[in-house]
Amino acid sequence: MTTPETHERPADEQSAMLRFVRLWLPIIIIVAGLLVGIIGSSLTAWEGAGLIMSAGLSVWLLNILFRVGVRGDRDRGREEDARDHYERTGVWPDDDSP
Predict the structure, then answer these.
(1) pLDDT per position as a tens digit, 39-80
(2) Domain for residue 1, yes or no?
């Protein structure tokens, strides 16, 4: 359910959608590829199955690469906040010495 003001989904819907895209979508694609190979049971069917399973693995890898990129953005944000704190106070935020 989206709100008209922000066009954002509530947190529980977002986490369910993220879980589906990160975990279940690649699994569904890979299982579909296996089914194509098993049901078709020919060399051509197994070639198609390999391509479908490769697509599922690609979705999984893209999710991992996206999360790695987002983590880097958060690290840069924390570093920028620490530099701002240092400019204001002259002390690093995690520095224990007075």
Answers:
(1) 998 999 999 999 999 999 999 999 999 888 888 777 788 888
(2) no
Alpha helices by DSSP H, the chain: 11-19, 25-40, 43-89
For residue 16, give its domain range: 11-88
For residue 98, is it within any domain?
Answer: no
Per residue in 32-49, pLDDT tens? Answer: 999 999 999 899 999 999
Query: Domain tally for the chain?
Result: 1
Q: Max CA-CA distance within the chain?
A: 73
Among residues 66, 37, 65, 41, the alpha carbon closest in space to that of 51 is found at 37
In a domain, residue 96? The reply is no
Residue 60 forms part of a structural domain: yes
Whether 31 contacts 59, CB under 8 Å = no
CB distance 26 to 60 below 8 Å: yes
pLDDT value for 46: 95
